[in-house]
Amino acid sequence: MTPLTALLVRDMRIAVRVGGGALIGVLFFVVVVTLTPFAVGPDLALLKRIGPAILWLAALLASLLALDRLFASDHEDGSLDLILTGRAPLELVIAAKGLAHWLTTAVPLIVAAPLIGLLLDIEPPAQAGLALTLLVGTPALTFIGVIGAAIAVTLRRGGLLLAVIVLPLTVPVLIFGVAAANAAVAGPVPFGTPFTVLCALTLASFVIGPFAAAAALRLDIE
Amino acid sequence: MRVNAVNLACRRGGRDVFAGIGFHLATGQALAVTGRNGAGKSSLLRIVAGFIRPTGGQLWLEGGDPELSIAEQAHYLGHQDAVKPSLSVAENLRFWTAFFGADAHKVQDALELVGLGAIAALPAAYLSAGQRRRLSIARLLAVKRPIWLLDEPASTLDAAGRGRLTDFMQSHLAGGGLILAATHGALGLNGAQELSLDQKTPSPLAGEGLGGGSEAKVGAVTP
């Protein structure tokens, strides 16, 4: 097993065990989306119109939930020091940890989205498109999030700071994610244009996220 | 292989912790770093491990793999044991051996050596402080790296654990290793030299003489 796959497997194993927080995200997502029809009322046309936005907002907040522990737990128990004495580049270490976080928190959420979309009167063909926007867009949320997680690593109440740092940076992802999801659900705007921009944002976050987070972590350790 | 430090200075949180620290540590040698609380023992080890940058002085490595930094050829054993409570004892150690690129088959042997072989499948949440420290020490045995940086390695160990740790350090030195250990008590190693950080803390009245510092002469350990 290479160092990075070992790290990926370890993080996923911790996440799915007791206290790991993998299911917290998807439960939060389901609860928020379920509450919406109760709050808005049984107006199906309205629910269908705001459905994609609700799903995306819930996905954004759910993906932030466990993010503050991404580096903080490794920092508190000394694992981060040892990771730095490893021979794997810190940028790739962060990418592996981000991938583990995405696999354990975002993937269950993408699987749950079509089921929970029924509550918002989103029909099956549109649900596939909506799940596709989440599949492509949530990695960007995670990889923007790692920057905030790295900055807030030494702070006691890092989760609050994390939200303040990360949420503004996710605005472009939210705009194009919801635009693509709306196009899939309601039309008539083409699905391809916002979806392509969403793909670009995710690819850019793969490049920027790990490098920015590595720089922040190196400063934190000192 | 030889770790050299000349005139190291450290400043933490706006306070000068120490200055003028130097040592030369060659293959087969051990150096005990002593000093009162707050003298900078841990900071010195963290500087050598590359976690913090010294505010002055030089630190370099002769010999060894030129492609790797000191940290990448060193084991750092700090106050925290880097043990994940939700993983089992063996899973914890297996992760670190894989992450450091070593063979997984040494894991069980290393656990037997530190006396945790019988509870390899137990979740690490149930370990005592001393057992967690033993698990950390097992990492040094499972993955071979020449430089050991030990910060109070015996602090939570019982008498038997301390005895074993001394044996591990002796055989590491005999195998061509280097040990830099911060300690209050005796390391129990024959021929280990001592670097005291007391008196190295710059006082406001200290003048020119400070920069010269004093260097520990490290003698070879006879295993």
Shape of chain B: globular
Q: Roughly how many Å apart are the termini of chain B?
A: 18 Å
CATH class of chain B: Alpha Beta
DSSP strand count of chain A? 0
Radius of gyration of chain B: 18 Å
- Number of helical stretches of at least 4 residues of chain B: 5
Tally of alpha and pi helices of chain A: 10
How would you concisely characterize the structure shown here?
Chain A is an all-alpha fold and 222 residues long. Chain A has one domain (3-221).
Outline the structure in words:
The complex is a heterodimer of chains A (222) and B (223). Chain A contains ten helices and no strands. Chain A has 222 residues and is mainly α. Chain A has one domain (3-221). In chain A, helix 7 packs parallel to helix 10 (192-221). The longest helix of chain A is centred in the last third of the chain and has 30 residues, at 192-221. Chain A is elongated. Chain B starts with a strand and ends in a 7-residue tail after the last strand. With 223 residues, chain B is of the alpha/beta class. The model of chain B is unreliable at 203-214 and 219-223 (pLDDT under 50). The interface between A and B is medium-sized, with 28 and 28 residues.
Topology:
The complex is a heterodimer of chains A (222) and B (223).
Chain A: H1 3-16, H2 22-40, H3 44-65, H4 69-76, H5 79-84, H6 90-117, H7 124-151, H8 158-169, H9 171-185, H10 192-221
Helix pairs in contact in A: 1-6, 2-3, 2-6, 3-6, 3-7, 3-9, 6-7, 6-10, 7-8, 7-9, 7-10, 9-10
Chain B: E1 2-12, E2 15-26, E3 30-34, H1 41-48, E4 56-62, E5 74-77, H2 89-99, H3 106-114, H4 129-142, E6 147-151, H5 159-174, E7 178-182, E8 193-196, E9 214-216
Features:
A: about 220 residues; mainly alpha; about 80% helix; B: about 220 residues; alpha/beta; Rossmann fold; five-stranded parallel beta sheet; four-stranded mixed beta sheet; globular; disordered C terminus
